[in-house]
Design a protein that fits this description.
Elements: H1 2-8, H2 10-25, H3 33-50
Helix pairs in contact: 1-2, 2-3
């Protein structure tokens, strides 16, 4: 699902990743460390794509 959203709407996918990270930081969501790390990597990959650093969205 993440890959599909990232390809169809990378801006939305990036915002979603950032909101989920923010929810974890505010203790609204109890995600495990692996999930948060994956969200951070996904957010960084999407940001690179949006800024033109990479040519495609990383899977």
């Amino acid at each position: 699902m993440r890959d599909r959203l990232a390809k169809l709407n990378p801006v939305s996918a990036s915002r979603l990743a950032n909101r989920l990270i923010e929810a974890q930081e505010r203790d609204y969501w109890g995600a495990d460390d692996d999930s948060i790390d994956a969200l951070r990597r996904a957010g960084e990959d999407l940001e690179d794509f949006l800024e033109g650093v990479t040519g495609e969205v990383a899977a």
